[in-house]
Amino acid sequence: MKSTEIDLYKELKKYFGFNKFKGLQEDVVTSIISGHNTFVIMPTGGGKSLCYQLPALVLNGTAIVVSPLIALMKNQVDAIRSLSSEFGVAHVLNSSLTKTEINQVKQDITSGLTKLLYVAPESLTKEEYVNFLKGVDISFVAIDEAHCISEWGHDFRPEYRNLRNIIKQLGDVPVIGLTATATPKVQEDILKNLDMPNANTFKASFNRPNLYYEVRTKTKNIESDIIRFVRQYKGKSGVIYCLSRKKVEEIAQVLQVNGISAVPYHAGLDGKTRARHQDMFLMEDVDVVVATIAFGMGIDKPDVRFVIHHDIPKSLESYYQETGRAGRDGGEGHCLAYYSYKDIEKLEKFMSGKPIAEQEIGYALLQEVVAYAETSMSRRKFLLHYFGEEFDEETGEGADMDDNVRNPKKKVEAKGQVVTLLETVRETRQSYKAKEVIFTLLGKVNAVIKSHRTDAHPIFGKGAAFDEKFWMALIRQVLVEGYLSKDIESYGVIKLTPKGEEFIANPESFMMSEDHDYGEKDEETAVTTSKSSAVLDEVLIGMLKDLRKKVAKKLGVPPFVVFQDPSLEDMALKYPITVEELSGVHGVGEGKAKKYGKEFVELIARYVEDNDIMRPDDLVVKSTGANSGLKLYIIQNIDRKLSLNDIAKAKGLDMDALLKEMEQIVYSGTRLNIKYWIDEILDEDQQEEIQDYFMESESDNIKAALKEFDGDYDTEELRLMRIKFISEVAN
After folding, report:
1. What is the DSSP letter of 88?
2. What's the CATH number for 628-729?
3. CA 617, CA 705: separation in Å to the nearest integer?
4. Which residues contact 233 (CB under 8 A, 6 or more apart)?
5. Whose CA is closest to 714, among 674, 665, 659, 663?
6. pLDDT over 90 for what percent of the chain?
7. Ramachandran region of residue 294, left (φ > 0), alpha (ψ -120 to 50) or beta?
8. Which pairing describes strands 90-93 and 116-119: parallel, antiparallel, or unpaired?
9. Cα dist. 253→256, 262, 665 in Å?
């Protein structure tokens, strides 16, 4: 059938029930039907699969679709079969089939019944399949997720590299490459590897104006923050991405305990469970899926209202693809990512075992993620620039849909500094990456600068009046404005553009804003920061301290044994009025809440009622005791009187980290009997002396104890005795 004989609108209506094409679909379909090599770059949710499904259904012969994921193929085959009365209209050919099933597939293809054959790239390398396909009528070969061909893609698959050679064996058939995410570098790579430089290329806009982008600092209180966020979307669908399976399980549990319907999804679950969890999400039996990136490939759920990244992804392509699962129905989608530079360092560590070239690529991709997270300019403009697209943050669609635009940072005039930066790139012969450019500006030396003798150049140190953060922020903004460009081929070397040359000759105003500082706050400051926004109730604190004194006196123990100060402060912030709520307070576990809590929650309940206080319900986040596995391990092995050194070693902890865990256990109200261990290091008199000190002391502060004993005992001995004391006296 020739393209001129086909009424595309009639076929579109017949098979898909649509009256019109979306975006670039019609042009793409026409190109494929006309037998041209075609390259399609279309964001997730843009209707990419219809581009090859419709031509396959109307052309003579069978179209081969190469796809990397079995689950994705299965979904698509089911969808095509639902459009046709013939079961054999679409098939999968992969390792999961039996001999009988394979014969059926071959029979349906030979008889001309099968229009679409989905194959994994590995299957195409099998000689028997290639020989079979050589003898049948192939309409075209479509390569889905074509970015898998490129080492610069976020999902490189070596088996994709060989596809071109296999396709050549099938004769002169048109090739269609499709991807939902590709930077200019990856696009070039795909065309080169598929050997189709003259392909008709169709690129849809990557702007998703209905998505709101936000990045938050990742603090120790991240779980509470996620729960508060998800509760705002009660009954709505969302996806939470984590990098590790362990974290997926932990977050899913925390959500479940806090009354949010959620299921985990990762490659460690068996196939049946994964399929069940996926279906529960699609059928709206659960609201939230907590997943590793294995989830969502080709899952077309239109009404996902939020996507949360608990861990920042390894590349902006991954981030863009994963956030693209939100708001496919055109309704607003909120994309929230948590960021801490520690996570980036962790990802860099994972790469250290890989070949150097792969490390360099991975590192370059990670730096782009850092730039995106830390920038204070329009996130949308930044993302679109990365994908080779211009965006006007004044008039562009969705311009105000990100945290940086809604809460802009103060801008300063930086015309002079831009000139200095551009001249530095020019004078160092455009051979440096950002780090060396900044070192040159600051007048700092490293091996690269020494070898180029840049430290002897008059430009060296010319920007020393500003710090590293300032120059980093400026480089990012100048790159997006197009005065500099980054040469990806050489892993991020910075070059001057003609626009940059023009700026040096005729400088104009350049308003820059400083990058965000996402320093990770520790647990103590995390508690105080949440207090600063919800001011501590000093009156209640006073009342709680009086009650603590009374209870301590009655029991004949120091006040800190009952509850520590941070716990009282948290009570004055959260107003827990039941023993169960009290166990969600900082530093209070179930045991402690049950033992001392009754009088405290009664006091708070009276206070809340008398003063007509609105309680922040959502601040009471129940913990699963995530990390409870480790705590359980410590408790069980101390019961077995195992050496503390061995316990620490078995869990990869140093002694300081183990003691911290043990302190948390006893302060939460659980007993640990470590007398067997202390007897090895301190005699009875010494133990009694320290025990008496803690009994009479106003505080359990170790520094104060060290001072009191003036070098008789070290920190570790005092901490161990404090654990023993709290365990025996408080629990």
Report:
1. G
2. 1.10.10.1390
3. 39
4. 287, 305, 306, 334
5. 659
6. 35
7. alpha
8. parallel
9. 5, 8, 20
Whether 3-203 shares its CATH topology with 628-729 is answered no
Q: To 10 degrees, what angle do helices 684-696 and 715-729 make?
A: 70
The pLDDT of residue 626 is 46
Question: Alpha carbon of 152 to those of 178, 357, 360, 381, 487: distances in Å?
Answer: 16, 11, 10, 22, 13
Amino acid letter at 89?
V
pLDDT tens track for 400-427 = 999 999 988 888 999 999 999 999 999 9
Q: What topology does CATH give the domain 211-406?
A: Rossmann fold (3.40.50)
End-to-end CA separation in angstroms for the chain: 83
Tell me which residue of 311, 168, 304, 194 sits closest to 245, measured CA to CA: 311
How far is C-alpha 608 from the chain's CA centre? 39
Structure tokens at 563: 């509850």
Kindly provide the b/e burial profile for residues 546-580, where b requires at least 16 CB atoms within 10 angstroms of the residue's own CB: ebbeebbeeeebbbbbbbbebbbbbbbbbbbbebe
* Strand-strand pairing, 211-217 and 237-241: unpaired
144-187: pLDDT as tens digits = 988 888 877 667 787 888 888 888 898 889 999 999 877 888 88
CATH topology of domain 411-513: Arc Repressor Mutant, subunit A (1.10.10)
Tens of pLDDT, residues 567-612: 888 888 888 888 888 887 877 777 788 888 899 999 999 998 888 7
Residues with Cβ within 8 Å of 594's Cβ and at least 6 positions away in sequence, in order, are 579, 669
**Residue in 403, 441, 396 with CA at minimum distance from that of residue 422:** 441
Between CA 127 and CA 120 the distance in angstroms is: 14
| pLDDT tens column, 525-547 | 333 333 333 456 788 888 999 99
Q: What is the pLDDT of residue 297?
A: 52
Full DSSP string of 397-455 = TTTT-BHHHHSPPPEEE-HHHHHHHHHHHHHTTT--BHHHHHHHHHT---HHHHHTTGG
pTM tops 0.85:
no
Tell me which CATH code domain 523-619 carries: 1.10.150.80
Q: Dig out the tokens for 709 from the structure.
A: 């004993």
Task: Tell me the CATH class for 3-203.
Answer: alpha beta
Q: How far apart are CA 448 and CA 623, in angstroms?
A: 50
Alpha helices for 458-589 (secondary structure H):
468-480, 498-505, 523-533, 538-555, 559-562, 565-574, 579-582
What residues contact 8, with CB distance under 8 A and at least 6 apart? 21, 26, 29, 30, 33, 54
pLDDT at 523: 36
Residues of the chain with pLDDT under 70: 1-5, 45, 71, 153-154, 294-300, 488-489, 491, 519-536, 616-628, 731
pLDDT, position 474 = 93
Kindly tell me the burial class for residue 600, based on how many C-beta atoms sit within 10 Å of its own C-beta (0-12, 13-18, 19 or more). Answer: buried
The full set of domain ranges for the chain reads 3-203, 211-406, 411-513, 523-619, 628-729
**Packing angle between helix 715-729 and helix 655-667, nearest 10 degrees?**
20
Q: What does the longest C-alpha to C-alpha distance in the chain come to?
A: 101
Instruction: Please name every residue paired with 39 in a beta bridge, in sequence order, or none if there are none.
Output: 177, 201
Predicted pLDDT of residue 413 = 94
Q: Count CA within 13 A, CB hemisphere, residue 707.
A: 6
Q: Which two tokens stand for residue 193?
A: 């590897």
Q: Which of 371, 399, 242, 210 is nearest to 306 (CA)?
A: 210
User: Residues 364, 313: contact at Cβ < 8 Å?
Assistant: no
pLDDT value, residue 2: 46
Q: Phi/psi at 624 (nearest 5 deg)?
A: -85, 5
Q: Percent of the chain beyond pLDDT 70?
A: 92
